[in-house]
Amino acid sequence: MLLKDGLVMMADTRTNAGVDNISSYKKLHIIEQSEECTIIACTAGNLSVTQSAFALLKEGLEEDEDSDGRRFVRDMPNMHRAASLVGEALHLASDEIKDAAGENSQYSFSGSMLLGGRFKGRPLRLFHIYKEGNFISCQPDRPFMQIGETKYGKPMLDRALEYETPLDDAVKTGLVSFDSTMRSNLSVGRPLDLAIFPTNESKAVRFLRIEETDEYFDLLSSKWALALVEARASIPMPPFMENDR
Hints:
The protein is α+β, with helices and mostly antiparallel strands.
């Protein structure tokens, strides 16, 4: 969520390779963190692809005609160029693993990322990077992006989130969105990882983990369920159903 007051990135930790093979794995990763930049990625899709992409970025991509050596995210001049480099790494990783597996493999070798953060003195940015390596940027008229299991949590974000939404309220909205998803899909679950970037650069980036036993999330979940029941009850009955009561 890219808002006037800052950037919020959230990811669950559940991986699903079938109903009998569900485990936890971190999906929110720090790509770079220094005085010059802080860049975070959330991942979805094939773990081998996204992990290989991170390995390529750590080693540096091969030099091109515009560079004097291997290319690293930290050396990019802005977030747009960083997103381009990450997209290139994701595309290379997908192709390499697909080639190694062979044409008859039954698995999907694709992954996607949300890339967010900033370089010192520059604005916060958020990008959705597709498996092909191309990307789009988040804009104020639709201040959020999702990857992975999106459909159950999207209605909450569509209705409640705006560019002017305060940062604390945005975090709460994002958690409700995740709660709605977890209620309907077992492939999404706690712990949840959060990164919170205030627009004001003098304020530190915060990293949080919401564990399985987090009391606030339990309270949020129960109150949201109760609020839905109360809201439904407060709405008048359909007039065309009156004769059936």
